[in-house]
Specification:
Blueprint: E1 8-11, E2 14-17, H1 28-32, E3 35-43, E4 46-47, H2 50-63, H3 72-79, E5 88-96, E6 114-121, H4 127-130, E7 132-138, H5 153-164, E8 169-174, E9 177-181, E10 185-190, E11 193-196, H6 207-218, E12 223-225, H7 230-234, E13 238-243, E14 247-254, E15 257-258, H8 266-281
Parallel strand pairs: 7-8, 7-14, 11-12
Antiparallel strand pairs: 1-2, 1-6, 3-4, 3-5, 5-6, 8-9, 10-11, 10-13, 13-14, 14-15
Helix pairs in contact: 6-8
The protein binds pyridoxal-5'-phosphate.
Pyridoxal-5'-phosphate is lined by residues 39, 180, 183-185, 204, 206-209, 242-244.
């Protein structure tokens, strides 16, 4: 984040350099991780699937019982000044339950949310061409993974464990079936069918996931949203992880064994082309 130090950020109605943006130590985001966030890509100044990101933000806010009165236009007004039209960037937007008079788990009366947004460049992810390695791990997160909560300690520990073993992602499983990555959704090609775990509270409803499903449907892929066992994943011919900043990344090695032929597969190559074309068309 060093490249961000002097960038302009938004904090509670003001635009200021990142180095001058300060939040109280009594902010509930700091004390409890009591907040939600979004990461919204912007290609050459245009926010990608903004309505989907705002719908998910609204859903996260509702689930944590926090209200914010901004509509689409107001969010556009707040976020647009952070963007640079000459680059691919992503906006990080975080909303917490604000500053309370004392540290107490129960909500303060009439909280004033803290609203923070910053922008950073999207650098092409190195793993997209060659593919990445991943490890499967027990999903140790809570039961509201459909909330994009800032409380990410389990995700942090899982991703770190993967990185320390030379892998790009931890692919998580519960009770013998896979859920998603530590910071990504999951797709697999199993017996020729493109599969992704169905949308439940155990996964984040990713916007990249949604776009891929739309593209698969529009292009007559055989597609299924269903439970995928860990065993089925381990026998998949292709595995991909997806997220707003990394887009679609092929996993070529799972638990130290090659996935399919150990190179990005043909379904990935087709979908990635469709995704890049779609990005440019919107
Ligand atoms: C746990 C988790 N699942 C899935 C995703 C992918 O969501 P999106 O495609 O909206 O970025 C993310 C993104 O960071 C994530 O943290």
């Amino acid at each position: 984040m060093n490249d961000l130090v002097d960038s302009k950020v938004y904090l509670n109605g003001e635009y200021l350099p990142l180095s001058e943006a300060k939040v109280s130590v009594l902010d509930r985001g700091f004390l409890f991780g009591d907040g939600v966030y979004e990461v919204i890509p912007a290609y050459f100044g245009r926010l990608f699937r903004m309505q989907d990101h705002l719908d998910r933000l609204q859903d996260s806010l509702t689930k944590i019982r926090l209200q914010l009165p901004y509509d689409f236009e107001q969010w556009m007004e707040i976020l647009s000044p952070l963007l640079d039209k000459s680059k691919n960037q992503s906006i990080y937007l975080q909303i917490t339950r604000g500053v309370a008079a004392k540290r107490d788990h129960a909500f303060p009366k009439n909280p004033i949310p803290t609203v923070f947004a910053m922008c950073s460049d999207i650098k092409p992810f190195a793993g997209v061409e060659a593919g990445v390695k991943a490890l499967t791990m027990e999903d140790s997160r809570w039961e509201m993974c459909n909330v994009k909560a800032t409380t990410l300690l389990a995700n942090v520990l899982l991703r770190q464990q993967a990185v320390e073993q030379g892998c790009a992602e931890a692919i998580l499983h519960r009770n013998g079936y896979v859920t998603e990555g530590a910071a990504s959704n999951l797709f697999a090609v199993i017996d020729g069918i493109l599969m992704t775990p169905e949308k439940t509270a155990e996964i984040l409803p990713g916007i990249t996931r949604k776009v891929i499903i739309e593209l698969a449907q529009a292009n007559d892929f055989e597609l299924s949203e269903e439970i995928i066992s860990l065993e089925a994943l381990q026998a998949a011919s292709e595995i991909w992880i997806t997220s707003s900043t990394r887009e679609i990344i092929p996993v070529i090695e799972l638990d130290k064994k090659p996935v399919g032929d150990g190179i990005p597969g043909p379904v990935f190559n087709t979908m990635n082309k469709l995704f890049q074309q779609y990005k440019q068309s919107v």
